[in-house]
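User: Could you go from structure to sequence for me? I need the amino acid at each position, not a summary. Structure tokens:
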């Protein structure tokens, strides 16, 4: 199958980012990583191997058939058939991403980003611990959404599923709100880097 111009440009850019180097790229994560960063924000990506990624790191990848970079949080790493993959999720999305990220799709991890004209270092010790916590909160949020949907279905024995469903949904909204507050506090409390 012949490549189109966008695929060729992305391949060249991916190849241009050498191991260990840091490049600024524009991510198209829409609202999925709010309030960390927004659609088409510029982030600094360090080219690493997938094995160098930790739970909670924000990783940048390219999906087949898409002509843009996506930045989502690594929830966990898992091995399948001897290959390493990242399970990812947009912080602001209700579900884990329906695909696994392998070395072929993986570009690198975000090491800095700009928020409110402030250059934020992701490799600062505060952010490393916070990112692990945010990964756990994000996974819990996805679990609660799934549980609210499971209990929201009408059971065969005609009992009311409303209370458990609404309870899970309410708790998931509280957790997502707390996540957003935590990110905003971290951004405010982080000393900015010099440009």
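Assistant: Here is the amino acid at each position, in order:
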């Amino acid at each position: 199958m012949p490549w189109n111009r966008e695929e060729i440009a992305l391949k060249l850019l991916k190849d241009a980012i050498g191991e260990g180097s840091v490049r600024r790229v524009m991510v198209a994560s829409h609202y999925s990583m709010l309030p960390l960063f927004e659609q088409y924000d510029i982030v600094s990506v360090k080219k690493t191997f997938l094995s160098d990624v930790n739970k909670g790191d924000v990783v940048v990848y390219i999906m087949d058939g898409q002509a843009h970079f996506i930045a989502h949080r690594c929830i966990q790493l898992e091995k399948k058939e001897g290959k390493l993959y990242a399970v990812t999720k947009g912080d602001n999305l209700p579900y884990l991403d329906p695909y696994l990220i392998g070395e072929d799709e993986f570009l690198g991890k975000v090491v800095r980003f700009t928020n409110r004209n402030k250059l934020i270092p992701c490799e600062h010790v505060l952010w490393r611990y916070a990112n692990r916590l945010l990964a756990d909160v994000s996974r819990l949020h996805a679990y609660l959404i799934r549980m609210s949907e499971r209990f929201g279905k009408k059971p065969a024995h005609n009992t009311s599923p409303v209370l458990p469903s609404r309870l899970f949904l309410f708790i998931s909204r509280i957790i997502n709100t707390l996540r957003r507050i935590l990110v905003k506090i971290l951004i405010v409390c982080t000393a900015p880097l010099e440009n």
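One structural detail worth keeping in mind: The helical segments are 5-16, 125-152, 162-189.
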